Hints:
By secondary structure, this protein is an alpha+beta fold. It has two domains: about 1-40, no CATH class; about 45-75. It has helices spanning about 10-15, 20-25, 30-35, 40-45, and strands at about 5, 35-40, 50-55, 60-65, 70-75. A hairpin with a 5-residue loop joins β4 (about 60-65) and β5 (about 70-75). The longest helix is centred in the first third of the chain and has 10 residues, at about 20-25. The protein starts with a strand and ends with a strand.
Amino acid sequence: MRERHRLPPSRDDRTVAADDTDHARLSQPAALAQRVQRIVESRDLFRGESEILISHDGAIYRMKITRQGKLILNK
């Protein structure tokens, strides 16, 4: 798994004036401003397989990689 990363700013975020950006950042709750998303590589989950089972909240889900390389999650 990879370390936690901050997502790059969106195009809209980059076009906002510095004063507006600082004001928006200061007006957000501290926990929201510090939030980062964890990125998990699919190859780390699948480990060479094309299908895995995931246990979530007492239910088993099946995730598979299609021939087109897309992910499908089924209960």
